[in-house]
Design brief:
single chain; Spore Coat Polysaccharide Biosynthesis Protein SpsA, Chain A; 8-stranded mixed beta sheet; 10 helices; 2 domains; 317 residues; alpha/beta
Length: 317
Amino acid sequence: MHHIEIVVPCFNEQECIRPLYNKVEEILKNIEDIKFSFLFVNDGSKDKTLLEIKSLVMDKGSDAVKYISFARNFGKESGIYAGLEKSRGDYVVLMDADLQHPPELIPDMLKAMDEGYDCCGARRVSRKGEPLIRSFFSNYFYNLFGKMTGMHLVPGGSDYRMMSRQMVEAILSLTERERFTKGIMSWVGFDTKWIDYENVERLAGKSKWSFWGLAKYAWNGFIGFATTPLRAAVYIGLITVLISIVEGIKLFVRTMKYGTSGNGFVTIVLLIFLLSGVIITILGVIGEYLARIYLELKRRPIYIAKETNIEEENIGS
């Protein structure tokens, strides 16, 4: 009998907790030779999300519903890591609470796992309910990330997926503090099957991701997996040196030929501004990598749990 554990990071999702559980229970209750349980990760919610989870625990029991509640909001990446770390299922499903990830796909995911795949992911073929500019930049990000890192992120590929225990342990073996889960999942490899689905509106509430929040998330992904920005800084520096040498030679020839270099005050000022901008940009890129190293060296925990109903002996490191 396979144990399917459903990990759900939550932030202000009080209206979604019970409908999600009921929907999954309705779909999975008739499938033979499996048992399922939920692991909710409350990421410092300010509403009644934790109370709703506790109410569900009272109704269904602590074997069916487990939870971890953070001391504050640490972000979705920390919630994903905590859920995977504390999970114990043979197969682990990672999904959002808002029902934009259709639970109806779980039986198909289970079938793919029985076929021998290590992972079955869900891929959005439409972005209903999302602004057009967000959809455009999302697609652009997937292409640019692949070119800069040499890794393949499936366009439209979501966090919603079922993974084998072996894949979960491989993901947890990467212990960086600043995490980009989609990149990590791609980096560890494993055979993955993709199932297409249509995006749907949220059950309740609104998206917690702003445009700038997604931009920061994308930037963290680049810094975490790509050394291209650092190489680009070297190339920009070399190109600037070559341009300077060429312009210096042209200036020398003009001076020797006409006896004057002309009034180059404006040109000099513009070059100073240009070079200053290039230098500051390069220093900024290098600073981002140094900041990442600094944060990693401090070895702060990825999250701090304030409350949980998971037995102490079952809690991972």
